[in-house]
Amino acid sequence: LTMKEIGVGVIGTGFIGSKHAEIYASLEGCRLVGICDVNQERLHAQCEKLHCRPFTDYRELVERDDVDAVSICLPEANHVGASVDCAQRGKHILLEKPLATSLEDCDRILEAVAGSGVTFTVGHLLRFDPKYAQAYEYVRSGGIGNIVQVKAQRNGMISAGYGAGRGTSVMFHVGIHDVDLMLWFADDSPIRVSAEKADGVLGSLGTEDAVLSTVKFRKGAIGSVGASWVLNDRLGSGVNASMEIIGDKGYISIDLGAERGLRVFSDSDGWLFPDLWHWPSFGGRMGGALEAQLRHFLRCIREQTPPLVSGAEARSAVAVVLAALESASKGVPVTLGS
Predict the structure, then answer these.
(1) Which residues pair with 212 in a beta bridge?
(2) 178 secondary structure, DSSP code
(3) Which residues, 6 or more positions from 46, have their beta carbon under 8 angstroms from its beta carbon?
(4) Are the CB atoms for 100 and 79 separated by under 8 Å?
(5) Please, where are the H alpha helices in 74-194?
(6) Any idea what DSSP says for residue 337?
(7) CB neighbourhood size of 251 (10 A)
(8) Residue 21 burial (CB < 10 Å; 0-12/13-18/19+)?
């Protein structure tokens, strides 16, 4: 694949999948062959805009010889089947987070990938956000010494809770971002997880309003991840988040408040705080962390190098989330296997 364009397909073109497709269509060295979605109206509108082929069955897309790689952007319940099928057909895979919602499903995916020789990574996007990426490099350089504590909070809007909450958890949708970052920064094995939940607003959907979890690491560090999705959409920010990393020789603070350095006011919409990090769009192109992630994926395919996010790391994040949900449900700490 070093001398030719990488042919790419996108499976699932909801909120995040449509952004994958738009970025691939604009990247040099790759060609967006086709996109797949069951929503015909959305599918054909996007294909017309991006000049690619429409598919309503992903198997037809991945059976094509000119498709070398895929982004799988399906609901998490559909990750296993699509991932296994793509791996068996020798397609390189970028799977949107979470890897899966059970360890059995994680292992089914990883087993299929391991035997296929394909490049495989999971879309833990925030590792490509320059704020977290620079913090990670500073931690790895020894700049703040040994990690003592990692503390994170991420708050989503209630429209996300109502829109995505049925049948999933705020920890899989929101909290897993910070669980992955915490594990990345700590570079240590989590051994025990405790959690509490609140579900007075969204409980009727079978999901939580908020979960607060704490993690104990093997070498002694502790971490906490708070995740919620009940903020009023009139806040205008989509999400706000913060993280503190405390070492025995220093401290790092990351703050993604509502304003994000740019605010816009209009009579019709009130205050808006446009996204500057994940997928900012200007000059007719989309940039930011998602574009950096997709470029990294394509580079790993070309150079046959391991991706920044491994399948094993993505599985570890799922294990911590599942332990947090079990602890919150049972009211007792949960011990993780080695």
Answers:
(1) 196, 226
(2) H
(3) 13, 18, 21, 35, 37
(4) yes
(5) 79-88, 103-114, 130-140, 158-164, 170, 176-186
(6) P
(7) 11
(8) buried
φ/ψ of 247, rounded to 5, equals -115, 175
Q: How far is CA 295 from CA 167, 280, 288, 289, in A?
A: 32, 16, 11, 10
Burial degree of 265 (CB within 10 A; 0-12, 13-18, 19+): exposed
Sign (positive or negative) of CA dihedral 78, 326, 16, 183: negative
**DSSP 3-state helix, strand, coil percentages of the chain (rounded to 5)?**
40, 30, 35
Q: Which two tokens stand for residue 174?
A: 């929101």
Cα torsion angle, 8, 124, 120, 73, sign: negative
* CA–CA dist 26, 35 (Å, integer): 15
Contacts of 194 (CB under 8 A, 6+ apart): 213, 214, 327, 332, 333, 334
Q: Write the pLDDT tens digit of every residue in 311-328.
A: 999 999 999 999 999 999
> Rg (Cα) of the chain, in Å, rounded?
20
Burial classification of residue 45, based on how many CB atoms lie within 10 Å of its CB (0-12 exposed, 13-18 middle, 19 or more buried) = middle
- Name residue 49's beta-bridge partners: none
pLDDT tens digits for 242-294? Answer: 999 999 999 999 987 655 678 888 898 787 777 777 888 888 888 899 999 99
Handedness of CA 65, 69, 71, 75 (dihedral sign): positive
Residue with tokens 């209009």: 266
Cα–Cα distance measured from residue 142 to residue 265, given in angstroms and rounded to the nearest whole number:
42
pLDDT band at 43 (very low <50, low <70, confident <90, very high): very high
The answer to whether 185 touches 147, Cβ cutoff 8 Å, is yes
Strand partners, 204: none
Question: What one-character DSSP code corresponds to residue 175?
Answer: I
For residue 75, which amino acid is it?
P
Q: Round to whole Å and give the CA distance between 267 and 274.
A: 16
Sign of the CA dihedral running 152, 158, 160, 161: positive
